[in-house]
Write a structure and sequence with these properties.
single chain; elongated; about 100 residues; mainly alpha; 2 strands; two-stranded antiparallel sheet; about 35% helix
Amino acid sequence: MSSFSAAEVAHLASVAHIELSDAEIQRFADELSVIAESVALVAQIPPEVEPMSHPVMLDNDTMREDVPGTPLTQAEALSGAPDSEAGQFLVPQILGEDA
């Protein structure tokens, strides 16, 4: 079990040029001790346990195959647009700038 003393936290704060009150130094010493204990627990996990990137298996069987298809023509793409001009979508001006 590793615990951090108030003197160690004060030294670290000094090196990092961080001003801490005595109450903050004690609080951080307690919090760092809890963190160090947690890391020590994780370090005790046997090495034969395979690491996981996610706690549950992720399978997405709803995805379709990525198969190339025929793209829309310009006319087909613009056919559903409310307005178009010169082969491009025409949208309302939103920034208040002159066109």
